Amino acid sequence: MVKVGGYILGEFGNLIAGDQRSSSQVQFELLYSKYPLCSVGTRCLLLSSFMKFINLFPEIKNIIQDILRNDTNLRSADAELQQRAVEYLQLSKIASADILATVLEEMPAFPERESGILAKLKKQKELPDSSDTPKEQKHLPQAIVNSESVSTPERNGGGGIGMSQGGSMDLLGLNSPVADGPPSSMGGYSQHQSQPQSASSSLFDVFDSPTPQSHGPPAHQNGGSGGVQLVSEANAKKFLFRTSGIIFENEVIQIGVKSQFSPPQAVGQVELYYGNKSTAPLSNFNVQIRNSEAESLLTQLSEIGPVVQISAQVKQVVSTKCMAPFSAQPHARISFTLGNFPTNIDLLIPVYINKFLEGAAMNGETFFARWKKLSLPTQEAQEQFFAKHPIDAAATREKLTQFGFAVLPNVDPNPENFVAAGIVYTASLQIGCLLRLEPRRDDAKYRLTLRTSNELVSKSLATLLKDEF
Q: Does the model's pTM come out above 0.85?
């Protein structure tokens, strides 16, 4: 059971980390409490799980590195355990966040063996050989992100957007072609439908029975009510610091996200991937965008067709342009019919103001001169809050960098404090942003101060960051 728990949490622990009862710290402490009592083989697996925690939960990176440095691991008499500890420790030190995300991505699906019963049925009834069906379509659905898509950087300087149509995420491990279409209208509430991608033979055909036309409705998750499944804000906010991953998944559909933004051009793209995990096509598939700040954030949705076939994957592109500061995120209402049961999913598209933020380097004299100029009450937003994770300088610096700021070393007189600077780009203006984060280790609290020339930007950045430390 410890092996099973370690494997599942290492692969998918981030999906439940939003709940305080299963936070990253709780997951780690639970597994490590069993570690000394386990066999060598189980401990090797748990070390792999801990290493994956570094990718999923950067805030506990130092704790896990201390475990790897422990003499019981680093100088273990067992060669396999020692080798893992040494290699994982070095990887955690020298690898960048992008490399870690690529190396430590979820494991692919295991191939299924041919059923003995199906083999006998083929022989007795002389059924057509199903070997012509692509083998990938027999895999259990699994969240897989190809290395091409993970390696795409979020911020490409001044180079604009250049998304590769070939570097799509194969969420179901199908290697099926991805459909996309021409762009549609800007902003507001725009409606589109999805194109059928690839067909796979139904298991019911093996027994000479028609594909059933009636299916039970999918179970509502994430607080869905009234026929609408609501995707929690926590699922979307994890994309504050990452560019790709799974934003929603149930027994019927898997929705993945891959994004790329170019702050100097104030533009970006969010690719949504819809994967059909059910045993029937998803018909009447359409997507509507609701954008309450359409004048500040333009959104353009590509067109796709009305059906997502069994085990197929469909890509839809949301192109964005930041015209002015904004604080609300656009929503996607995804609706489809499975059998005779309609389903609606309300999804928050992870386009935050920090996606248009780029770091700005400066010395201490310049920083504090600008800090003093931004002294009006409307130019400052301040938050004081208790730490939700262990106060760790390296993890904090990494989060601020991934958020979009440039962390300025040796600027604040107090070496415990963090100062950072950046520029929010819009189509009409550029907004300088200054940050000061003051940790207080004695009572595990932070004071976060943002100063910008725009009141909405100051408040939005402070609100986004206050729950992340």
A: no
